[in-house]
Amino acid sequence: MPAWVGARYRAWMAKLSPALAAELVAKARAVRQHAYVAASGFRVGAAVLGGSGAVHVGCNVENASYGLTLCAERAAVCAAIAAGERELRAVAVVTGLRHPARPCGACRQVLAEFAPAHGDLAVLLAGTGKQVARTTLARLLPDRFTFADVHKGRG
Ligand SMILES: [Zn+2]
User: Which residue in 23, 62, 73, 85 is the catalytic one?
Assistant: First the structure.
């Protein structure tokens, strides 16, 4: 875990109660049914917990022009931002795999954009079973690229 992940993050993680984690996973599991998976049949549901405490969901949306396919995680992030959120606290991702899958690289970068400034984003991963893997965005995307890097490079 990076040095910048400090006491605030640990305090936040302690607040992500089992009940709240279960709610996020349940909402991600429920929204999977709406996935538009004309190409792959691989349904994914995601739920993000905004800084306001509200939960926003998204599912994957495929396209005949494959490169335009949108992952569930990014769909959930867009729903959260459209609802006025600017900071995300946690994300749950559910697939139809037996063992939990992890977010792709693009989604990790998009989630990082809205991670708490002095903390981290809790990541909950579930498949068809009852097992829920718990990790953090800092573990999935260490040394992330941010607007701080962009601003340093201006001029
Ligand atoms: Zn993705």
Answer: 73
CA–centroid distance, 48 to ligand 1, in Å, is 14
Query: What is the whole-number distance in angstroms between the Cα of residue 110 and the centre of ligand 1?
Result: 9
The yes or no reply on domain 7-152 and CATH 2.60.40.10 is: no
- Taking the centre of ligand 1 as the mean of its atom positions, its distance from the CA of residue 98, in whole angstroms, is 18
Query: Average pLDDT of 9-13?
Result: 60
Which residues are close to ligand 1, an ion, with C-beta < 5 A? 71, 104, 107
pLDDT surpasses 60 at 102: yes
Mean per-residue pLDDT for 126-151? 92
* Domain layout of the chain by residue ranges: 7-152
Tokens found for residue 136: 């953090």
> First vs last Cα of the chain: how many Å apart?
33
Whats the size of the chain, residue-wise?
155
How far lies 117's CA from each of 39, 44, 113, 152, in Å? 37, 28, 9, 17
Confidence band, pLDDT 50/70/90 cuts, at residue 97: very high
87 given a catalytic annotation: no
